[in-house]
Amino acid sequence: MIPLAGRPILTAVQMWVAEAAHGDLAGLMEQAGQGIATAVRRLATGAEVLILCGPGNNGGDGYVAARRLAESGHPVRVAASAPPATDLARAAADRWIGAVERLADAAPAPILVDSLFGTGLSRPLADDVAHHLHRLAASARLLIAVDLPSGVATDDGSVLTEPPAADLTLALGHAKPAHLLQPAARYSRNARIIDILAPSGKVKGEGSTTFVLSTPDLPEPGPDSHKFTRGMVAVVAGAMPGASDLASLAAMHAGAGYVLHLGDADGIPHALVRKTYSDAALDDPRIGAVVIGPGLGRDDTARARLAAALASRRPLVIDGDALHLFDPDASRHAPAILTPHAGEFKALFGHTHSSKIDRARAASARADAIVIYKGPDTVIAVPDGRAVVAGDASDWLSTAGTGDVLAGATGAMLASGLDPFAAACAAVWLHGEAARLCGRSFIADDLAAALSRVR
């Protein structure tokens, strides 16, 4: 089983194209079933396994897994929601020599494998199927979903029928958007990939331009480093200086060598350089990134400061209030990273019913800027169409100021010399890891400080 980090994300159509290009669909199903059986056997520790098989190829994978478990001597039963309806599923079911119980009649087992519906589901489950899936899951000590939990949509992360939350999800071949996009991702916990191998090779994902966020290669100081080579970040303050203070603190803890807070507030840390705001301060050629928006306000003063930052030709991180004042269709002279949450994104770009990944891509292309579309699932998009998705964010990030911390960390990464896309990805990773280190019931100040521990 392979972690998702760094792996391609394929939509349902992309996965079907990859499988068709491979050619040996029966071989792929055999390898998928073997991979499922191997994972289940390791986790079941001898306990009886009940595999629920649907009518399609996901059910076919379940029949193969059952046969492989039985051949190894592991106790296994099969229950079906309907007879096999595809040639591949029928062939797999024919090779299963055990009984096939009706889903409605199936007794519980300690290990339940949901192989009812996977990639490509487009409509809700029948009420009776959903009822018995929940009934059997409630009595199992371990629920394993094959490819996706039955009831979630593959591409946009929507939930067609609420499934029981899987303890482990075995993604076949590649990650799918639903493994990372909410609300579907909350039901496919602990997703791991099973490589699908056959004599002619493996299912390829070269066509994907979307990947799962992975551990970044962060810049490190060397013997010749000094504060400016590590990166100088200017943070523009405004009506609520506490937010810009948080962004400044985060930039320092994320690794910036010099952070300049342009505002009138005083306070610690003493390492933070504070100056009264002036447009001229943004002309310092040593500034590697300007962070603007946290606590900026939306009045005429805020508009003037945003205009000055845009005119400065310094790389920008545009967050918070500045996003409400920003024109995504206006031309700029320097790279920018936009960091909207859902409300800011809607105000800036409107709303469509496409997936969050597609919305982020379209917004990035329109604004000609990197977009960090924040949330419990964060999508980082670049104008050329590439995207990275970070799932499994800490629910405890839902507290005031954590977005300001991300803005500051992004400024530090951008000023460090990373290209804007790499800087955005690195900042999101640092932010997520810091939240995990903080644990429960932390505040944004704790989160900013934890960035040093992550580094």
From TrEMBL:
SUPFAM superfamilies: Ribokinase-like, YjeF N-terminal domain-like
Residue ranges constituting the YjeF C-terminal domain according to the UniProt record: 210-455
Repeat recorded as keyword: no
InterPro entries the record matches: Carbohydrate_kinase_pred_CS (IPR017953), CARKD (IPR000631), Nnr (IPR030677), Ribokinase-like (IPR029056), YjeF_N_dom (IPR004443), YjeF_N_dom_sf (IPR036652)
Cofactor(s) listed in the protein's UniProt record: Mg(2+); K(+)
Known partners and oligomeric status: Homotetramer.
Chain's role: Catalyzes the epimerization of the S- and R-forms of NAD(P)HX, a damaged form of NAD(P)H that is a result of enzymatic or heat-dependent hydration. This is a prerequisite for the S-specific NAD(P)H-hydrate dehydratase to allow the repair of both epimers of NAD(P)HX. Catalyzes the dehydration of the S-form of NAD(P)HX at the expense of ADP, which is converted to AMP. Together with NAD(P)HX epimerase, which catalyzes the epimerization of the S- and R-forms, the enzyme allows the repair of both epimers of NAD(P)HX, a damaged form of NAD(P)H that is a result of enzymatic or heat-dependent hydration.
UniProt protein name: Bifunctional NAD(P)H-hydrate repair enzyme
